[in-house]
Write a structure and sequence with these properties.
By secondary structure, this protein is α+β, with helices and mostly antiparallel strands. It has five helices and twelve strands. The chain has one domain. β1 and β2 form a beta hairpin.
């Protein structure tokens, strides 16, 4: 009888210790996942801030959402020598685009979407270049090249800028409404050689939400909160009276060099990161950990 009681007590102790160890492992694993997500978010914030710091009002800045897109898109023009990410080509400027798309490797999972950072170098040689006639178009072509030069963006009218955003050919960016707004197909992890060829545009995986907003600022010292326009975390759009949606754009605003007075003073990014090792309740109920990045826009 005493032996049976001893065995029962030992069994209870083993069960309790096992439960404690299991919970401890879960807590440690969740904490490590959060630390990894924080590290990724810090790296992302650094890249975002650097892009916005280098962005120029000599071109354009746009926050748009094509019909059917999962998230808004931020487009920035950056002047100066630019180089291909996947080849040897170079140009006289670049256009950076942030967006979020479905992960084709796990398309049914709403917390495993992918944030993209497309950086296209503008590889067209201006016709004023003495060597223009001898330059082969194919010699600098690549998936991250657009056959535009920075001078074209600096001299374009507002309507021409919208056309360049929408044009789904090598002479445009293909990022606006209609056919040009088609979502890129990426898969993380990759399944074949085609997927590998798309990795150059992947910025972060395991995400569920991306919002992009802007503000024109306020009076220093004022207690009135900033007014933010654009797309909030719920996907709702707040229109900017200083920048109405132009014809040809499904939703959003386009700021160009033709009117520097209506350019935003700051941009705000919000995104979620859901490391696979995070507790299921945090990943599924809240979409992971939420982060916010606010950057001043240079003029």
């Amino acid at each position: 009888m005493e032996l049976m009681v001893s065995v029962a007590i030992i069994s209870i102790i083993i069960t309790m210790v096992s439960s404690i160890l299991s919970q401890s492992q879960s807590l440690v694993s969740g904490a490590q996942a959060t630390v990894r997500a924080n590290a990724v978010a810090m790296a992302m914030a650094g890249v975002i801030r650097d892009d916005i710091r280098k962005a120029s009002n000599l071109g354009f800045l746009a926050v748009i959402r094509p019909n059917g897109a999962l998230s808004p898109r931020l487009l920035l023009t950056i002047p100066g020598t630019s180089r291909s990410i996947v080849g040897s080509g170079k140009g006289n400027g670049s256009v950076v685009c942030y967006s979020m798309v479905a992960n084709m490797a796990d398309s049914g999972n709403t917390v495993n979407r992918v944030i993209l950072r497309n950086c296209w170098f503008l590889g067209k040689v201006p016709t004023t270049d003495p060597g223009y006639a001898t330059v082969s178009n194919l010699s600098i072509a690549g998936p991250d090249m657009r056959w535009i030069d920075m001078f074209t963006l600096q001299t374009a009218s507002d309507a021409q800028t919208v056309s360049l955003i929408n044009n789904n050919t090598t002479n445009g960016l293909g990022l606006g409404s209609g056919v040009g707004g088609a979502e890129p197909r990426v898969a993380v992890p990759v399944a074949d050689i085609t997927d590998i060829g798309q990795l150059w545009q992947v910025f972060a995986a395991n995400t569920s939400q991306l919002s992009i907003q802007w503000t024109h600022g306020g009076n220093p010292g004022s207690a009135v909160p900033l007014t933010w326009y654009g797309y909030d975390q719920a996907g709702a759009y707040t229109a900017d009276p200083q920048a109405p949606t132009p014809a040809g754009i499904a939703s959003g605003a386009v700021f160009t060099h033709n009117n520097l007075q209506n350019w935003p003073k700051a941009l705000k990014f919000r995104f979620n990161l859901a490391d696979p090792a995070m507790p299921l309740k945090l990943r599924q109920d809240k979409g992971g950990v939420s982060y916010e990045v606010i950057c001043a826009v240079s003029k």
